[in-house]
Each structure stands twice: as C-alpha cells, then as structure tokens.
Amino acid sequence: MASLLELKEIFRSADAVCFDVDSTVIREEGIDELAKFCGVGDAVAEMTRRAMGGTVTFKAALTARLGLIRPSYEQVQKLISDNPPQLTPGIRELVSRLHQRGVQVFLVSGGFQSIVEHVALQLNIPTANVFANRLKFYFNGEYAGFDETQPTAESGGKGRVITHLKEQFHFKKVVMIGDGATDMEACPPGDCFIGFGGNVVRKQVKEKAKWYISHFDELLKELED
C-alpha cells in the first residue's frame, strides 16, 4: 500500500487526473437538483444517500431514482439554464494549473452527460474527456430511460473508464479525485485516490482514504512545491 508521501508524488507526476463531478467539481448532486426541479426531491435524496454509502448497486439506485423523476428533455435543459451547476471553489484554478503542466483532465461521473458537458465547458475540458450517463428521450421529449451501456451506469464503472484511458492513451499514472465510494473503488486500476470532503463528507471515504482533502487549494500547493 502506498504511503501518503508516495501518493503525493504520484499526483505531482501524474499524466492524467480524473475528477468526479457531483459534490466534487460542483457543489451539488446533479440528480438531486433535477429531482427537486421535477418535484420529487426528498424521495430521491434519500436514494442518493443510500447509493453513495455503497449499500445498493449504483445501477439499481440510478434506475430507481430516474424512474421516480422521469425528466423530460425540456426539464433537463431548463434546469441547466435556470439553475446552472455551481463550481466548487478552487476547481477552476486547479484544472487550469494541471492543463498548464500538460496533464490530461477528465470528468468521470455517475451524473448526466448534458449537465457534465456544461461543467466541462466552464473548465475548458474537451467534451471528449467527459464520461457520464446519457439520458434517453422519445421524439416528443419525454423520458425514455438511460443508456445502460455506459460504463458509468454501473458499480465499478469509473475503474473501467480508467482502464480504458490507460489502454487508449498509455497513461502511466492516473489519479482519481472524488467524494464517494464509487470514486474510491476506482483505485486500482487508478494509481492514486484523493478523497474530497469540501462539499459533503462521506464517513466511509473519510475513514478509508489515505489522502483526504477539504479544499482544492491543498492540491494547488502540492503542484507549487
């Protein structure tokens, strides 16, 4: 098992950094915001808590939550325009610094492509570097389910994305940063996991992560040393 010093060295020399999005890159949980917007906020927030705690499979939780929300295409677009996701303090500077160092930055999320791409745009991350779940709609815009073939639709999906990135780009060191159990379980194949508690603290992650931070400034400082 790598020590904290070794993890810091991996982060400083990484050729790719993957960020979770909900409650990490942005302050909110996108699915909870969508649920509130569609009038089923409380029921869905409880399901999210159970999913993040790792007591139900991610796909089962996602299917159940979306079955309650049943968002239309119009509702998703209106949510993004009326209540755009709020970036977590320090993330813009951190991503910018990583880009300056030639590090590839990816957004790997159990959230929704349309919302995550909006976030990527604000951070100058190419949409090709976004891995997230895709909602499906009928021609009239009504909810038609989600794309179950996306790796991020399942437990262990973030690890599969990292494996794919290593195979495709021959990355030697890939770092995963996130607040939840699905982020922590992506290492391995990720080489370093950094737990993030700046928006919400997941007890299981805080207790088990060798490296746990509360603000992205802590990572900016690592890159200055």
Task: Give a verbal description of the structure.
Strand 4 (135-137) and strand 5 form a beta hairpin. Helix 3 (30-37) packs antiparallel against helix 4. The protein is globular, with a radius of gyration of 17 Å. With 225 residues, the chain is α/β, with parallel strands linked by helices. The protein folds into two domains: 4-28 and 86-223, Rossmann fold; 32-82, DNA polymerase, domain 1, CATH 1.10.150. The longest helix has 13 residues, at 157-169. The strands form two sheets. A six-stranded parallel beta sheet has the order 3-2-1-6-7-8, with helices on both faces. The protein starts with a helix and ends with a helix. The mean pLDDT is 89. It contains twelve helices and eight strands.
Care to give the gist of this entry?
This protein is α/β, with parallel strands linked by helices and 225 residues long. The chain has twelve helices and eight strands. The active site is at residues 20, 22.
Alpha-carbon Rg, integer:
17 Å
Distance linking N and C termini: 24 Å
What is the CATH architecture descriptor of the largest domain? Answer: 3-Layer(aba) Sandwich
Number of domains: 2
Indicate the structural class: alpha/beta
How much helical structure, as a percent, in the residues? 40-55%
Q: Tally the helices: what do you get?
A: 12
CATH topology of the largest domain, which one? Rossmann fold
The CATH class of the largest domain is identified as Alpha Beta
- Identify the CATH homologous superfamily of the largest domain: HAD superfamily/HAD-like
Largest β-sheet summary: 6 strands, parallel
How many E-type strands?
Answer: 8
Order of helices and strands: HEHHHHHHEHEEEHEHEHEH
Name the beta content range.
15-25%
Instruction: Walk across the major sheet and give the strand order.
Output: 3-2-1-6-7-8
Average predicted confidence as pLDDT: 89
Q: Poorly predicted ranges (pLDDT <50, ≥5 residues)?
A: none
Shape category: globular
